[in-house]
Amino acid sequence: MNFCPNCGSKLEPGVSYCHNCGNKVNTTQNANTNSQSGNKSKLVSCILGIFLGSLGIHNFYLGYTGKAVAQLLMFVFWLGFFSFIWGIIDTIRIFIGNISTDADGNYLVDNI
Question: What is the C-alpha to C-alpha distance for residues 56 and 68, in angstroms, rounded to an integer?
Fold first, then answer.
């Protein structure tokens, strides 16, 4: 399956424009994007965010190490409530698609 490099929506084979955002799709670029996508699961990152979000584990999983360390330090220094709220907000943003890529720019996939 190919994905739009602009919005990450699934593309049908042989299309030259994304039906979601209207972006012109380069078929060779699209093939490269397809081989890189699928590394990280949207479902796994949401589950990690729900259960371990206050520790920043979901950000470690997605490769956002700076954010993850900040959340972990907030939790360690007795600011766990704020870190918990931050984790829940990140989880909601991942779930609705506001955060749709990992730190390397690869799109999150909907399956495991």
Answer: 4
Buried b (16+ CB within 10 A) or exposed e, 15-39: eeebeeeeeebeeeebeebeeebee
DSSP designation for 11? E
How far apart are the C-alpha atoms of 101 and 40, rounded to whole Å?
Answer: 9
Q: How many CA atoms lie within 13 A of 27 on its CB side?
A: 5
Using alpha carbons, select from 97, 102, 36, 90 the residue that is nearest to residue 63: 102
Whether residue 111 is predicted with pLDDT greater than 80 in this model: the reply is no
What pLDDT is recorded for position 69? Answer: 95
